[in-house]
Amino acid sequence: MDFEFDLIVVGAGSGGLAAAKRAASYGAKVAIIEVNKIGGTCVIRGCVPKKLMVYAANNRSNMYSAEGYGLISKEITFKSNILLKNVREEVSRLSELHSNSLKKLNVEVFEGHGRFLNQNFIEIVCPKTKNILGKVSAKKILISVGGKPKKLNIPGIEYAWSSDDIFELKDFPKTLLIVGGGYIACEFASIFKNLGTEVTQLVRGKNLLNGFDKDLSECLEKSMTALGIDLKFKNQLKSIKKINGNLESTLASGNKLLTQNILIATGREPNLERLHLENLNLKMDGAFLEVNELNQTSNPNIFAIGDVIKKPNLTPVAIEQGRVFADNYFAYHKRRVNYKNIPKAVFTIPEISTVGLSEEEAKEIYSEVNIKIFKCSFNPMSNTFKKNKSKCLLKLVVNKMNDKVLGCHMFGEAASEIIQMVSVSLNAGITKKDFDTTMALHPTISEEFVTMYG
Ligand code: NDP
What we know:
Layout: E1 5-10, H1 14-25, E2 30-34, H2 40-45, H3 47-63, H4 80-104, E3 108-111, E4 113-116, E5 121-125, E6 132-143, E7 147-149, H5 163-166, E8 175-179, H6 183-194, E9 198-202, H7 214-227, E10 230-232, E11 237-243, E12 246-251, E13 256-259, E14 261-264, E15 268-270, E16 284-285, E17 288-289, E18 302-304, H8 315-330, E19 344-346, E20 351-356, H9 359-366, E21 371-378, E22 392-399, E23 405-412, H10 415-427, H11 432-436
Parallel strand pairs: 1-2, 1-6, 2-3, 6-18, 8-9, 8-14, 9-10
Antiparallel strand pairs: 4-5, 5-6, 7-15, 11-12, 12-13, 16-17, 19-20, 20-23, 21-22, 22-23
Helix pairs in contact: 1-8, 3-4, 3-6
């Protein structure tokens, strides 16, 4: 049977775009279906607009230390409406760039919700009217619809924001309750507080950033507390009430909090429900689609990448999955995604970045006696004239049996830029001796990585 396309990609986020562009570059006839702006979570309502806000927060934080350098200015005024408008314009520009590159590669774009009729046919539906706009067919279909914020099932949840709502705001709130202790909660707590909002952060566990090296989450906790973020651990949100334009939160402890707004950041989940997957009977892995190492689902014509599968839900991972899929099926270039040593960062101020195993993970895998920890914590030179001085932390987790560096962790300025490069050496199997025999670059923060002795 002939189909209109070689490949239909459902979802034009980072992963879907990477797959569509790579397959089209090999001469495949490709269609892509998207209901929102081209770009997906990362470009439209995630990494990109968030990072622009981090730059704003960083600039303001630096302005407060300017006097120490003799830079005297009048009172700093933050106009959040200007920041939000500029961020939206930049996001639209990037979305347009992606649309143009799809055009250049002759990828046909269909606007609307895609839903499966069978393993080769997809129906496109208008999200507003629910009218069926058309039907397209392909030999292969790639699901790259991404994730969506998880909602808490509590009374009054309709008054709270998810991270998606932040980028639609006209102005920043004066007071904000943030629920969660993960990536999104910590990053927004840092952005809002550094830009003048009073922030309370509610965490159900006893520490921030579960799964990260404990030393890093402790450093972040100290720094966020010193900045004035009101961290409340071992507590949960039970209900929300609207009172005279503000929101009253009732906590599990019985305490009440009054804030202008509430941001729920309690994780994300695959955005699969509108795809009509019941027509296909695909195997699931919990809420995620089950795939093999070629990203093929239990139906050989259907593939899945990004936040709908159970792999690290990070933009570069989705992009690589998309490219590997296209290389394998449209260029017959056999290769696999390398999931080892994926660098991660939490863009707080200062930031956290990490690659490889945490101390806790390494001890569990190799046993405590076989692990050696090297770490140093100090006031970086950039703190000299700062009012809020967060010490930085550098840490290496080493396998005593073969001297291999298993994990490299950092809390401090430019941590993400440093760890990105260290991840190359971890991938290549670097040893502690390699660190020790590398010359330091002075004066930097990261020079301490090559001068740590146990
Ligand atoms: P995370 O999984 O990072 O954090 C979720 C947080 O919510 C945890 O603290 C979790 O607690 C808490 N939580 C979960 N359920 C509840 C509940 N019912 N009540 C109270 N607290 C709850 O998710 P995020 O939403 O922050 O981010 C989603 C994903 O997006 C990340 O995992 C990451 O993959 C990606 N992301 C990456 C970024 C980056 O690379 N810089 C930035 C932003 C997002 P507990 O730990 O106890 O489970």
